[in-house]
Amino acid sequence: MLSEFDIIKQYFTRDITAYPEIIQGIGDDAAIWQQKDSTLVASVDTFLEGKHFFPDCAPEDIAYKALAVNLSDFAAMGAIPRWFTLALTLPEAKPDWLESFSNSLFTLAKQYDLILLGGDTTQGPLSITIQLMGTIDKNKILLRNSAKVGDQIYVSGTLGDAGLALQYLQKKIILSDQIAQAVLPKLHRPQAQVELGLALAGHAHAAIDISDGLAQDLGHILTASHKGADIDLEKLPLSESLTSALVRKDAESLALTAGDDYQLCFTIPQNDPLITQLSKSYQLTLIGEITEKPGLRIHQHGELYTPPIPGWQHFN
Ligand code: ADP
Ligand code: MG
Hints:
α2 (59-77) packs parallel to α3. By secondary structure, this protein is an alpha+beta fold. A hairpin with a 2-residue loop joins β12 and β13 (303-305). The protein has a 7-stranded mixed β-sheet. The termini are close together. Helices cover 34% and strands 27% of the residues. Residues 29, 73, 76, 209, 211 line the site of magnesium ion.
């Protein structure tokens, strides 16, 4: 079976090296191109009922997350979001639903001063596609392919909380009300790290947002950069909710492989003073180091560890 990455590579990736205005095409969190004096950025994400959210998900959460995941791709590039379009497919036109959906969408849009430029509305199974556009300083782009040997690998926030909330909604685990209330917003309302991405731009060598699990997403940086990494399982930042809900080994496994956290993973030269400065406002955790030797090696008490499941992939 073809994976989503095989499909993109085999059927949709063409040689575009003859177009010097394209700074980054297929293969990163967003596309970047030069238009006269402006460097422009675009990314698009589709949100499907039953796939990305449950049929009973609140319209305000659906709207929030559909926009937040695009903002997260901008965060991973160090880009400034400015404009968006919305393609909406609805099974039926329910005023209450549309009121809640649009209010939530515009509340988040306002936080970033985003303008809705247009879109498309059709009838069918519920699906939301948002294309986000914006600008970037072309000298400070955070790409996946620029990790250097010796770089330190950091992640922001805590990992695995959204994965825990998902298991709870799937009725795979039981959580206390207190823990459920703490982790459900992590799944439904991811906080895109746009300001952090902008702060890292010009300092970090490579970055990605963690949408499909740390192991897989860091893997994308390693593949694109032709490098490897050693990371320490014990260093992964785990929330109190996660460690009180699960035994250590299950908590670590979620942190490594569960998706939907939308935190940033980035690589930065050793001892960049920016880390100390940013640590006043952000939780930043050093988890490992970039190596010449390819592959991702996960260490646990001195032993090599293999994750029980790979990260999220469509068609698998
Ligand atoms: P992300 O998780 O950051 O949204 P994806 O893993 O979905 O990124 O996509 C990987 C890369 O492939 C991105 O550069 C994306 O723009 C590109 N891509 C995905 N689907 C298609 C498609 N159907 N046609 C062209 N490019 C695609
Ligand atoms: Mg991304």
